[in-house]
């Protein structure tokens, strides 16, 4: 399947959604809103929001009513308007993490997405506040845009909060900072913890949030069916689809990170755009350092296969998500 057309279409929707759903720079305090917009609107692959839109697209009215039966419909883009605020929310949250990660107290990076980092373009305090505001804005978007279904708004917020919290994204970042100070004592379990939480958690959330929007937060006759014998059966396809999305995100996240380590280890420093001239993580443990290049390649392939297997368990037309997974895990830069 050609990825170019659907990717361009998803990306265009996301760019429009981001522009429309971020606070305008003309509202006070303009400097804060300018910094938020600078951070978010400055490029990036938009991987997480693309996953949200694509996951929502897997389900349609039919699957909603029948509890997740397989359909063979091509992408019809019908879920995009509904899923767009959630896609924007996850990109806001991801961007906050990048803005904070770039700060002098963490990675002290000068460049992000090919431009000066937010604290370089503005100042440290403004970047800190812009990150805080993006994190808060993500949850405000969910409350505002899914108010018609409190159960959905709650499920989306819970999913995002869990992925972004102290056990996952922030926990992964904390363990990463600790590991950087003591690379020699870093174990492979810690390495997995870091990447399952820093990278995979947000990919899981992106897919599951799309699934929640596509399927609905609960089986159709829930909670009316609660306590009845058939309630477990009614819940099963719903739970299975969300579980498959979560597993796909987890394995895609690990594969993505291992491939990142392989590319870092094999790249010529001239072509290594993101750290050219400055290797802030020289001593850090990576999959390649711990397992060697060959085993790291095998691990990346295994994780990719697990992600593809999970995607194949989903209803609807999964060709886009399968092709995207393949592209992300075989990328050369
Ligand atoms: C500060 C709470 C907090 C967390 C920071 C995102 C992050 C955690 C650190 C950035 C460094 C890093 C390599 C993290 C792993 C996750 C990852 C691969 C981030 C980059 O995501 P991409 O490649 O970036 O999707 P774009 O710019 O395309 O959105």
From TrEMBL:
The keyword Metal-binding is assigned to this record:
yes
Q: Which cofactor does it need?
A: Mg(2+)
- KW Magnesium (keyword) present: yes
Q: Which UniProt keywords apply?
A: Isoprene biosynthesis, Magnesium, Metal-binding, Transferase
Recite the lineage of the species. Answer: Bacteria, Pseudomonadati, Verrucomicrobiota, Opitutia, Opitutales
Record PROSITE patterns: POLYPRENYL_SYNTHASE_1, POLYPRENYL_SYNTHASE_2
Listed under GO biological process in this entry are: isoprenoid biosynthetic process
**Pfam families, sorted:** polyprenyl_synt (PF00348)
| A GO term for molecular function | prenyltransferase activity
Protein name per Swiss-Prot or TrEMBL: Polyprenyl synthetase
What domain of life does the UniProt record list for this protein's source? Bacteria
Q: Tell me which species this is from.
A: Cephaloticoccus primus
| InterPro entries membership | Isoprenoid_synthase_dom_sf (IPR008949), Polyprenyl_synt (IPR000092), Polyprenyl_synt_CS (IPR033749)
Q: Which family does it belong to?
A: Belongs to the FPP/GGPP synthase family.
């Amino acid at each position: 399947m050609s990825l170019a057309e659907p990717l361009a279409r998803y990306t265009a929707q996301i760019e429009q959604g981001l522009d429309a759903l971020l606070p305008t720079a003309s509202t006070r305090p303009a400097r804060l809103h300018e910094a938020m917009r600078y951070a978010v609107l400055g490029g990036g692959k938009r991987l997480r929001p693309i996953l949200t839109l694509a996951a929502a697209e897997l389900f349609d009215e039919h699957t909603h009513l029948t509890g997740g039966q397989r359909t063979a419909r091509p992408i019809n883009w019908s879920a995009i308007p509904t899923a767009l605020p959630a896609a924007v929310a996850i990109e806001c949250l991801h961007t906050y993490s990048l803005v904070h990660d770039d700060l002098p107290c963490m990675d002290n990076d000068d460049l992000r997405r090919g431009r000066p980092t937010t604290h370089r373009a503005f100042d440290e305090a403004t970047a800190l506040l812009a990150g805080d505001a993006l994190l808060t804005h993500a949850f405000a978007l969910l409350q505002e845009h899914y108010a018609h279904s409190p159960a959905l708004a709650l499920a989306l917020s819970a999913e995002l909060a869990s992925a972004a919290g102290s056990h996952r994204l922030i926990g992964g970042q904390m363990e990463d900072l600790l590991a950087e100070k003591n690379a020699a004592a870093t174990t492979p379990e810690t390495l997995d913890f870091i990447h399952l939480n820093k990278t995979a958690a947000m990919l899981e959330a992106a897919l599951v949030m799309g699934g929640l929007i596509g399927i609905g937060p609960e089986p159709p006759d829930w909670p009316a069916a609660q306590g009845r014998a058939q309630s477990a059966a009614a819940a099963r396809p719903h739970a299975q689809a969300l579980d498959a999305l979560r597993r796909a995100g987890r394995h895609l996240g690990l594969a993505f990170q291992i491939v990142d380590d392989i590319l870092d280890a094999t790249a010529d420093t001239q072509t290594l755009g993101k750290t050219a001239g400055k290797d802030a993580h020289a001593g850090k443990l990576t999959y390649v350092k711990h397992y060697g290049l060959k085993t790291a390649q095998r691990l990346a392939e295994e994780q990719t296969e697990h992600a593809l297997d999970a995607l194949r368990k989903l209803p609807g037309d999964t060709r886009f998500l399968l092709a995207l997974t393949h592209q992300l895990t075989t990328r050369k830069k």
